[in-house]
From TrEMBL:
Name of this protein: Ubiquitin carboxyl-terminal hydrolase MINDY
Keywords: Hydrolase, Protease, Thiol protease, Ubl conjugation pathway
Pfam family, one: MINDY-3_4_CD
Phylogenetic classification of the source organism: Eukaryota, Metazoa, Chordata, Craniata, Vertebrata
Domain of life: Eukaryota
Amino acid sequence: MPVTPQLIESLRRILLGGNFRVFDYEWRRAIFHFREPNSELAYALKADGGGAQAIQMVVQARIIKHLLFARQSSSDGRTLHSLTEVGRREQDRALAAALSDSLWLAGQEVSATVTLVTEDYCVTPHLDYKLDTFTERLQLFTFSEKDAITNFILDHIQCFQEEGSHGVILFLYSLICSRTIERLREDLDSPTSYLLHLSPGSSVCRQALLNLLLTGRASPHLFNGTQHFGQDGLPLQHPLQGVLSRSDVGYLRWSREEMERGALPQVGSMLKTPRFPVWVCSINSSCSVLFSATRLLLSDWRAEHLFQLYYYSGQSSQTATARLTVDTHSHHWEASSRDGEADPEKRFPSLEMTIRTKWDGAAIDWNGTSPFY
């Protein structure tokens, strides 16, 4: 189906807050572009910054989930080395699987919609609308079977990967059309009426959009369930919508600034303990991915005594996956060898503090890598 004027206006309003706002340059150039196949970071997307990085990193988390735990492999498929043995076709398949995962969840596992740009304009813009030259050319393709969506995306994978394709925005449009505008308005509470927050330099994803990507529902808060009462014990006029179901890939959050202000939101167990040991990390407002190759990490407490976590920031400056050893039985991690450091970021790197929101008090060894984040 071709896009309608009403849908275009609804997409603009739910994303950006109005018809005169358009995506900035960083958003328009954002695509899902892999590193070199069959290399140290063959599994990894490039995501060098801008507001779209958060979306790229959620998709990255699902790619890792697919490559480690879902695909058929000649080995057991669950080692870091297996992520380096990923060729171009396997990259395409993993991306198609990751995108369709989010769309199918957003469509309540009943149907999902993919939006693609065609040659011809489907609508004629009017005076109170700012043209962006690609939203007006959208075609909508709706499917009622998940395999059909995955195959369709795989057949048109270049529409999300090639320079100039607006691949991340197309995925975002697909996500909203799969969820539907009506359901999104029900998900959002009154203070959160649109999904991107305009900040200096770029539009950034609100928590509701990240939750939509992770869980299929645009709940604006990180706690489990729905809060009907305020901190004063009185009933809220509008209940606060949290996360209702355990996600496939998880979410951890740490911000030095929020911590210093005493305003760091608590992430509920639905997001902290996902079905697969892969977490999107929001660290000082920048997204990255933390993961384990051991699925037992989430189901057997003995696996949590001493284990490996791998970290990918999305930045092109990272040339190898960082490996961290986490020891939850060590004590006094604060009295480490970095005790003499005056800089709190060097004494307690933000990534370590993020990990400790899940494994409180853990000692973390970077195995020779200079700590970052």
